[in-house]
């Protein structure tokens, strides 16, 4: 399979390198020093499951440099989704299917609006990986899971082919017949984790052990769950409690990428997490005061805080 990976960070870099090691023709779209390093020496992934390195020159600077492609994997930050969708719509790549491994529920809505419903598969991933230095991605533990599924019956064959490609690359992969529900389930959890750890500025262990912030965590997820149900996604009545029980099993030091970005002064994905819950809830007439408050508290930091004003 000819695969283009848009974004060679922790997610795109890890899964793309595994697919390349399994024999697929993988090209990354990267930038800056990371791009230069991949062109020079390939992309190195360090992992407890075994290190892999892609061939040199396995990256390009722009989508327009890609040739005919069977599958495009989108693994950029959410704020780049619109731009990527526009560039994909105008690129001469043949007629590839597109699989986003980004966070949130807005990603596929944006991609489908520009590329058409037929071309966009549903998927989500579970992994902790990051760029350690240009040309090097570090996988933090053994979790490396992807769930993929079709939105339309006509996508079933391609969805199965993508599932097989990940499975053959020794990635923990599951097919889904209700991928929208799976994506929403992850979204609800991620909104809860990101909202509370970022607002409290502490890891999950602190959040869950304090009576008031534990209620905050539960209510943030409950609001997102109500939006999901109003959007036609059938989440179980016990879903939030199940997620709270899961939070109790997480390492006390675990936090969210949004909390990490906040601490580093980086741009935040807030508009597509708690802010996204607010935007989705408004036309549905659903009150989401907890998510709205989190979005308001963190609003000054959305564009980053590397040079705060006095």
Automatic annotation (TrEMBL):
It catalyses: (R)-pantoate + NADP(+) = 2-dehydropantoate + NADPH + H(+). This is 2-dehydropantoate 2-reductase. Belongs to the ketopantoate reductase family. Catalyzes the NADPH-dependent reduction of ketopantoate into pantoic acid. It comes from Streptomyces spinosisporus. The lineage of its organism: Bacteria, Bacillati, Actinomycetota, Actinomycetes, Kitasatosporales. InterPro entries: 6-PGluconate_DH-like_C_sf (IPR008927), 6PGD_dom2 (IPR013328), ApbA (IPR003710), KPA_reductase (IPR013752), KPR-Related (IPR051402), KPR_N (IPR013332), NAD(P)-bd_dom_sf (IPR036291). Pathway: Cofactor biosynthesis; (R)-pantothenate biosynthesis; (R)-pantoate from 3-methyl-2-oxobutanoate: step 2/2. Its EC number is 1.1.1.169. Coiled coil: none annotated. Residues 178-299 form the Ketopantoate reductase C-terminal domain. Keywords: NADP, Oxidoreductase, Pantothenate biosynthesis. Gene3D superfamilies: N-(1-d-carboxylethyl)-l-norvaline Dehydrogenase, domain 2 (1.10.1040.10), NAD(P)-binding Rossmann-like Domain (3.40.50.720). Residues 3-151 form the Ketopantoate reductase N-terminal domain. NCBIfam families: apbA_panE.
